[in-house]
Amino acid sequence: MEQSAVQAVARVACDNVERVVVGKRHDVLLVIVALLCRGHILIEDVPGVGKTVLAKAIARTLGCTFKRIQFTPDLLPSDVTGVNVFNQQSGRFEYRPGPVVAQLVLADEINRATPKTQASLLEAMEEAQVTVDGVTHPLPEPFIVMATQNPIEYEGTFPLPEAQLDRFLLRIALGYPGRAAELEMLNRQHRSHPLDSLQQVVRVEELVHAQAAVKDVHVAMPIKEYIYALVEATRSHHDVYLGASPRGSLALYNASRAWAAIQGRDYVTPDDIKVLADPTLAHRIIVNPSARMKNVDNRVIISDLLARVPVPGARPVP
């Protein structure tokens, strides 16, 4: 599959999702980037902006098996991964899969579950498998976790630890729609929700082939050095307590290849890195407490680094 075919798959999928999620094409494309990279997505935004609807629309567009897990404080790890149940007829224990056994899993309000339950996703997200009572069960391919959380309401929540955040390829925020988009949303839902009539437009096999084609996108050595320079700069920034890990470098590397393929190119440019730097790196940074007191957040730090780290091939201003 050539890069133009990857571009076509992304365009068809994005157009279909936009029948439901209006005015958020860039964010929908970022979700498709994660799908092409076999990565997981964290959608962090206030209630009511379409986080859950976006996940459902993606699942219907691809025809993937879809499961939703509503994370609550009393949710147990076994409620996520599944349990072994004794079968009296066979005299053996049988594995009853949990909702994590699906191609697209929506972890809704993930920060409302206890850390023990949150940790039940770690193995699944990193190795596409779950282990129950010492027996490992593979998860279906492609396996993608889309998690949502509310960044405003902290009462009764458990912030995601760094190890959990680091397993998300991208973090995005949908934000409020503009005037035209919100009016269009009202018009489309006059009689029924457009999600009810959304059809599959991309086969899972096409997505798998597109994922393979993304790996053929070329990344020149100066671009790799640019990625390293950005990630290394997060580790030495004076406002950062903990910078991005090597997994962050890989995330930016792979996401930039997928973004280039969506644009119809078989090579990565510095502009691709700039587009993906915030969604791939910002959530991996822990800001110093003193900097947080001055309202410095991780997105501001990434913006500052993009302005300061030299772009390969650019001429310095005299």
Walk me through what this model shows.
Strand 3 and strand 4 (92-97) form a beta hairpin. The chain has 14 helices and 11 strands. The termini are far apart. It folds into 2 domains: 1-213, 3-Layer(aba) Sandwich (Rossmann fold), CATH 3.40.50; 217-318, Helicase, Ruva Protein, domain 3, CATH 1.10.8. It is of the alpha/beta class and 318 residues long. Helix 1 (3-17) packs across helix 2 and helix 11 (246-262) crosses helix 12 (270-281). The longest helix is centred in the C-terminal third of the chain and has 17 residues, at 246-262. The protein has helices spanning 3-17, 25-36, 51-62, 77-81, 115-118, 122-127, 162-165, 179-188, 204-214, 221-236, 246-262, 270-281, 289-293, 298-308, and strands at residues 41-44, 66-70, 82-87, 92-97, 104-108, 129-132, 135-138, 144-149, 170-172, 240-242, 286-287. 44% of the residues lie in helices and 15% in strands. The chain has a 5-stranded parallel beta sheet with strand order 2-5-8-1-9.
Summed up:
By secondary structure, the protein is α/β, with parallel strands linked by helices. It has helices spanning 3-17, 25-36, 51-62, 77-81, 115-118, 122-127, 162-165, 179-188, 204-214, 221-236, 246-262, 270-281, 289-293, 298-308; strands spanning 41-44, 66-70, 82-87, 92-97, 104-108, 129-132, 135-138, 144-149, 170-172, 240-242, 286-287.
How does the SSE layout of this entry go?
Layout: H1 3-17, H2 25-36, E1 41-44, H3 51-62, E2 66-70, H4 77-81, E3 82-87, E4 92-97, E5 104-108, H5 115-118, H6 122-127, E6 129-132, E7 135-138, E8 144-149, H7 162-165, E9 170-172, H8 179-188, H9 204-214, H10 221-236, E10 240-242, H11 246-262, H12 270-281, E11 286-287, H13 289-293, H14 298-308
Parallel strand pairs: 1-8, 1-9, 2-5, 5-8
Antiparallel strand pairs: 3-4, 6-7, 10-11
